[in-house]
């Protein structure tokens, strides 16, 4: 067989490999149909999740910002066709104008300090409005545009280098139509985590988290014990606390920056007769187990509100809510606390 | 009948009793109103030093003296309603959440537009108050309340209500398709929510396929088109009829092999290619 024919045959055979790929994909989809989550198999432009062949999707900007494209200021967004929209990126600093001269567009800028290279999320009335990656000192700048005049509740939180979410900085704001407002000096509370859910009396419990770099962090253990630690150049802090002085009981730990007012989330541990490491990292309020607590989880809870729940959902309620076998306002409060959009 | 002008005196009463850190308060900007006139009553949350993320209240009013004409949720601190404020037999029930919590003195929860009817005396008051802390455990908060006492008496001046116009569309929003074993037997559903910064949201409509095929709907909405091979539109419509439409193109970027025509075409062309290869092979043997 000559060379020409081999090339010809190879050319004609290539679609068969393609066909084989289809078959495998179809088998994979068929298998996936029997699993819980098939949503990931469907590429949707507009579902806030970047998928194959998309630069971005809605609010999923793949951790990119205007700086990633060489601009100094502004907010990167995603076009309806899932391409990056750089129209709001600029080399010019946005005006500082809290309630000042009216400009044509209604915008709010937020500037502050989170943790070095952390993901910072801005929510508007409970829905994600913008994402940014902070700088090496934790500094961030975010913008929300296209607003109407009226009352808004903005929440800003950050996710540290271990994936732990900070408490939210909550800012109710009356936005004036046609004005640009800037909220400066937002200082996000440190993140906090512990290494044990239960610690044997007399043993150590390690408290750690992330803050801005070289920052004094106050750690409050219950109401009595308070220690100060300094974060390193990455903003990380850690403290080993000996529980010899504590009676066997439940305790709550939280932290705050010496410079700030906001407290971290509270984490609970037990002083008892054994050491139990932190194992269950499932997110409270995350009813569909997608790592997010948002409108979907609220909707699932609302569906079961004041109804008899099924045995399978009872397990979810037990793990992710208050484990009283029904959906009531306490559960909605838990969802609202862990809400991350 | 001689036309009488009536006056409605609205006096906030801070009921004596135990003092609470946080409270729900009923307030009105007017203290006089004529008969058959409109007046507005606002519900505010004063959280004092506690961050509150969930509230519930029943608000009762004397039906013989007034009629509820409109509920206004625009600019509410409540982002998501568990129970939208609705009236039944002179009682307005509401409950909702504030993600991240609210910790301030005067957060507007909801507003009610009433029409005064006739002489009388009574109180617009709270019942079944519930509040929960933003602490991750849903710790209950004792909520105090201030109610509104009202009297109707004849006065010379007539209150002319300010009818608020609203040309503001509801806020932009992104509906989301999802599925869960714990909802609608694992079928695909749609969730959506937005706010209106004017007078408030009225309702939503979901249109599957095109905007001529819309039905009034609530979130979560069970999608009829479980094949997810078309467009879905969600209309958010406020109390004055201003609407915002959000769309999801489920077909775009969908799996190409979900289209059976493509599959059949590929199979046929592959058979043709196999035939051609076989023919070439046979000739080369000769």
Q: How does this structure look, described?
A:
Chain A is of the alpha+beta class. Chain A has helices at residues 3-33, 295-304, 311-320, 329-338, and strands spanning 73-74, 77-78, 84-85, 89-90, 107-113, 119-124, 127-133, 139-144, 150-159, 169-175, 180-187, 193-194, 196-200, 204-210, 216-221, 225-230, 236-242, 250-257, 267-272, 276-277. Chain A is built from four helices and 20 strands. Chain A is globular, with a radius of gyration of 25 Å. Helices cover 9% and strands 49% of the residues of chain B. In chain B, strands 1, 2, 3, 4, 5, 6, 7, 8, 9, 10 and 11 form an eleven-stranded mixed beta sheet that branches. A four-stranded antiparallel beta sheet of chain B has the order 15-14-17-18, with no helix packed on it. Chain B has a three-stranded antiparallel beta sheet with strand order 12-13-16, with no helix packed on it. The longest helix of chain B has 26 residues, at 260-285. Chain B is elongated and about 115 Å long. Residues 1-19 and 252-257 of chain B have low confidence and may be disordered. The interface between A and B is large, with 80 and 77 residues.
Keywords, separated by commas or semicolons:
heterodimer; A: about 350 residues; alpha+beta; four-stranded antiparallel sheet; 4 helices; 20 strands; about 30% strand; globular; B: about 290 residues; mainly beta; eleven-stranded mixed sheet; elongated; disordered N terminus
